[in-house]
Amino acid sequence: MPLMKSWVTSANAQGHPFPLNNLPYGVFSTEGTDPRPGVAIGDMILDMEAAEADGLITLADYPLFDVPFWNELMEEGPAVWAALRARLNALLAEDASERDKVEPLLVPMAEAELHMPFAVSEFTDFYAGRHHATNVGTMFRGAENALPPNWLHIPIGYNGRASSVVVSGTEIRRPWGQLKSPDQDLPAFLPSRRFDLELEMGAIVGMTSDGPVSVEEADDMIFGYVLLNDWSARDIQAWEYQPLGPFQAKATATSISPWIVTKAALEPFRVDTPERQFELLDHLKDAGPMLYDIKLAVDLAPEGQPATTIARTNYREMYYSSAQQLAHHSTSGCPMNVGDLLGSGTISGATKPERGSLLELSWGGKEPLTLDTGEERAFLEDGDTLTLKGFAEGDGYIIGFGDCTGQLLPALDDPYKR
Description:
This protein is of the alpha+beta class and 418 residues long. It folds into two domains: 9-115, Fumarylacetoacetase, N-terminal domain (SH3 type barrels), CATH 2.30.30.230; 123-409, Fumarylacetoacetate hydrolase, domain 2 (Alpha-Beta Complex), CATH 3.90.850.10. It is built from ten helices and 27 strands. The strands form seven sheets. Strands 6, 7, 8, 13, 14, 16, 17 and 22 form an eight-stranded mixed sheet that branches. Strands 9, 20, 21, 25, 26 and 27 form a six-stranded mixed sheet that branches. A hairpin with a 2-residue loop joins strand 2 and strand 3. It is globular.
């Protein structure tokens, strides 16, 4: 599909992340206004609350955009999702007949503050990238036992904390926790010394379920995608994770990009999952191309210094798709809710520059990487800013997500000292 031209001329610029082909959904405010839903088009944001109030957008007999999140639209289901996208295209296309009505409702993105684009119901994070799982397993168990026996048969995951999901730009505080080194007899309560990032994609569930769903049904349930950084305290995790897995190590924060890129916008970029080592059981089998060709990168900037790109990879490297993760999540009868967020798991490629975490890039801290500034990093230092970037590349255009950023602040003083 080629670039679709808009009368919002900035959307037609080569390499702009928000052309008419994209139309991602976010929540914004300006000075003196409350947060409300908006659609990105070029360097502008279409005020959806105002468009609905003016009768330009009518999708139901009741308002859908008078709240500061997109969950109300999600609850209407795929037919309404498609109707909105078609209406937005009609209003913003180069030959649109209602430009004079729409133009006053556009807000310059430079004047807007972006907020959480949806209300997160629950958060589940997966461990579904084979290269990442192999690297981590090799570090801790050796190459012969890198993958646990179940890994090639089910997408492994854990239930995280919806309350700690934050929007891009939110500062992240280094956490305290129990740490234990191999040479210690007992753990100590200290700030994390091995704080890390995880480059992931997040899938947003837009429909409810009550009982198991197929992979095809799960794919229909996904509303859209965001970039996701699941901040991780590796030293806290090393002490706590056996026998039940991550807990406080993953509860500090999970950052997401501010724009929801719809599944419809990503349709031209579908690709197959990797070749299977073992055939999956019927309820998890691939139902056609289930991944997307989305180029991803991670920048790390020390405080007051320019950024270094420390990793480049692609979402197509995942072993399990979000639809397979969602289908697996439902097998027990676990109900899925509108606004559920599924983290893909760390996305890494086959080579060192494609590794999506510092744990892998520095090989557990043994091989620190050198930044363009000359500084070294094994894990994150106070003041570091992480920026995740991602886009799918079409014929003369890209589908961008907007950056997912967060700066690491120093740990607070011991919170238990009175």
